[in-house]
Write a structure and sequence with these properties.
Elements (H helix, E strand, L loop, with lengths): L5 E9 L7 E8 L2 E6 L1 H4 L6 E13 L1 E3 L5 H4 L11 E2 L5 E2 L5 H14 L7 E6 L11 H4 L8 E5 L4 E4 L1 H6 L11 E3 L5 E6 H5 L3 H11 L2 H13 L2 E9 L7 H9 L7 E7 L9 H14 L5 E2 L2 E5 L29 H13 L3 E6 L2 H17 L8 E4 L5 H10 L2 E4 L3 H4 L1 H8 L1 H7 L3 H7 L3 E3 L10 H10 L16 H15 L17 E4 L16 E6 L2 E4 L4
Parallel strand pairs: 1-4, 5-13, 8-9, 13-14, 14-15, 14-16, 16-17, 17-18, 18-19, 19-20
Antiparallel strand pairs: 1-2, 2-3, 4-21, 6-7, 9-10, 10-12, 11-12, 21-22, 22-23
Helix pairs in contact: 8-9, 10-11, 11-12, 12-13, 15-16, 18-19
């Protein structure tokens, strides 16, 4: 029997294929696209079944999230203490915490409910930058409990605040020499742990977090969150599979199951941030994953390095003149002269390298390293990517274009921390050039947009909205000259993201031969007013020709 063909009808199909930009129907066979056009144009492929589920909806290429983390699903089971209200995966809303008093009251409620009495209390999503003045410290958390270990995991993922009981249990003392342990005016640990080497001192609590990351339920929740946001491909941009090889079977079992509603691109950490390793051996392990463990739904495109912290945590590393206000806690998690040697084994093996560079100084380190490795080993299509890329200058983008580097802009920062960047962290001029999408277009740098979920919620309608409007909660327009069109924003979240991951021959546009991955919307982001993009309704997704409606559909 001939393989069945399904033709999906839609109110409008935005293909992002420049030679065939719009359609009303798309034909699918064996999970791939036979063609997009009118029904009359597609009938020639043979007998078909017409599916009109989307006759009142708009199809765009499946949104691709090229920098997020399974923590979006894993941490959903932990109490939320962020500033903004946040929608849960089940559709309910977690209310934001607006003051230290609210935080302490909430933690006291959790403490009373949690058993046994010595079980650690771990919460997530907190961000001290919204609370000017005294930073959260152990003395605040001690108001909740002097006996139960408490860890408040910050939204950035780069810091945590712990109470005295946890420091006592983890032997964090005045004598502790690990970089990133915050100190009070007397030189004693104040409870703030900056970056992974310091957070790793809270060993028991970190093991709990890592266990959640590798759990089946956490991965399933991640897939559900992707579907709800209209994402057909997501990354786990700090995969622990190389460090916890037992997790591989779990990922394969969950993601390759037909019920899982997304594709996953897993970028393994080469090592814990700031830790040296056998880079040639790590590269060989990633090649083995690529050759023997990949599937249509689970890929291993590259490797991830983290070489600084977060701007809002004052732990990103900036070039002169540094931070606008506040205390510079910048932590450089590599030796600049050695980073080329870290990258080279992956580059020579044909493995794309993604590097976390929030600060412009760390971007310089990565760009220099790429220039050096290219002199030693030619690879004209590497697509190594500056991740976050928040403070890239025009000069850096020109160098990146010459060297074939990509950028992945964290445009959600313009909304969630835009006012704080303008007023506190980097000041007006640099805040106005943050996430310089328009300059990247002018200089010829391929780029994508991302949420860094769980740092901010999954969802490309919001990243697009930020890139197009660049508006902050106070109503400030942050860098009008860096605004881009809705088309360019949609391109960045589809073709641009696919290109970055060397997957643009398979996904990113609706055209013949590609995988049948679509995002199903109530309206086209190209047709609504720019300020309305983030409010477009999402029906759900189609992945490989299979429909995955969101709960509200």
């Amino acid at each position: 029997m001939p393989t069945p063909i399904t033709i999906f009808q839609a109110k409008q199909i935005v293909t992002m294929n420049p030679s065939n930009p719009k359609a009303t129907h798309v034909a699918v066979r064996e999970g791939k696209i036979l063609g997009a056009g009118t029904l009359a144009e597609l009938k020639g492929w043979g007998a078909y079944e017409l599916d009109d589920t989307f006759k009142d909806h708009v199809l765009v290429p499946g949104f691709i999230e090229a920098h997020a983390h399974v923590l979006e699903g894993a941490l959903a089971e932990l109490p939320y203490t962020g500033y903004f209200d946040r929608k849960r995966i089940d559709g309910s809303t977690a209310k934001g915490i607006k003051s230290y008093a609210e935080l302490i009251d909430f933690l006291k409620q959790l403490d009373q409910q949690l058993t046994p009495p010595d079980a650690p209390l771990i919460v997530q999503g907190f961000d001290p930058i919204y609370f000017p003045g005294e930073r959260l410290a152990a003395k605040h958390l001690d108001q909740v409990s002097l006996t139960r270990p408490i860890l408040v995991f910050h939204a950035s993922g780069h810091l945590a605040t712990v109470n005295t009981a946890l420091m006592r249990a983890s032997n964090i003392t005045r004598a502790t020499t690990v970089a990133g342990v915050g100190r009070d005016e007397n030189g004693d640990p104040d409870g703030e742990l900056q970056e992974m080497p310091a957070m790793a001192l809270a060993t028991a609590e970190l093991h709990i977090l890592m266990g959640i990351m590798g759990s089946e339920d956490g991965i399933r929740r991640y897939g559900a969150a992707a579907r709800n946001a209209g994402l057909t491909t997501v990354t786990d941009m700090a995969s622990m599979i190389l460090m916890q090889p037992q997790d591989l079977a779990t990922w394969q079992r969950v993601v390759n199951n037909p019920a899982f509603p997304a594709r996953v691109a897993s970028y393994n950490l080469a090592a814990l941030a700031g830790v040296n390793a056998d880079w040639t051996g790590v590269a060989a392990k990633i090649k083995d994953l690529q050759m023997h463990e990949s599937s249509d739904k689970l890929r291993f495109p590259g490797v991830k390095f983290v070489i600084d912290g977060s701007i809002q945590g004052w732990t990103a590393v900036l070039n002169w003149p540094g931070y606008y206000t506040g205390e510079d806690h910048g932590l450089l998690l590599t030796v600049p002269e050695q980073f080329k040697d870290w990258m080279l084994p992956f580059h020579k093996a044909g493995i794309q390298v993604s590097v976390h560079c929030n600060g412009d100084k760390t971007a310089d380190i990565m760009i220099d390293a790429v220039e050096d490795v290219l002199k030693e080993w030619a690879w004209l299509d590497h697509r190594h990517t500056v991740q976050h890329a928040q403070l890239l200058t025009s000069a850096q983008l020109r160098r990146m274009a010459k060297l074939g580097l990509c950028a992945n802009f964290f445009t959600n920062h313009l909304w969630y921390w835009g006012d704080q960047h303008y007023e506190q962290t980097v000041g007006p001029e640099r805040a106005n050039r943050m996430e310089p999408c328009a300059t990247a277009i002018r200089e010829g740098v391929h780029f994508s947009l991302h949420t860094d979920a769980n740092v901010t919620p999954l969802g490309h309608l919001h990243t697009m909205w930020c890139a197009v409007n660049r508006v902050t909660p106070s109503g400030r327009i942050l860098g009008e000259e860096e605004r881009i069109s809705a088309y360019d924003a949609l391109y960045a979240t589809t073709v641009g993201a696919a290109y970055q991951m060397h997957m643009d021959s398979e996904i990113g546009s609706i055209e013949i031969g590609k995988l049948a991955d679509f995002t199903v919307l109530e309206a086209s982001p190209l047709d609504v007013k720019p300020i309305e993009i983030k409010d477009i309704g999402i029906w759900g997704t189609v992945v490989g020709g299979v429909k995955y409606p969101a709960p509200s559909a």
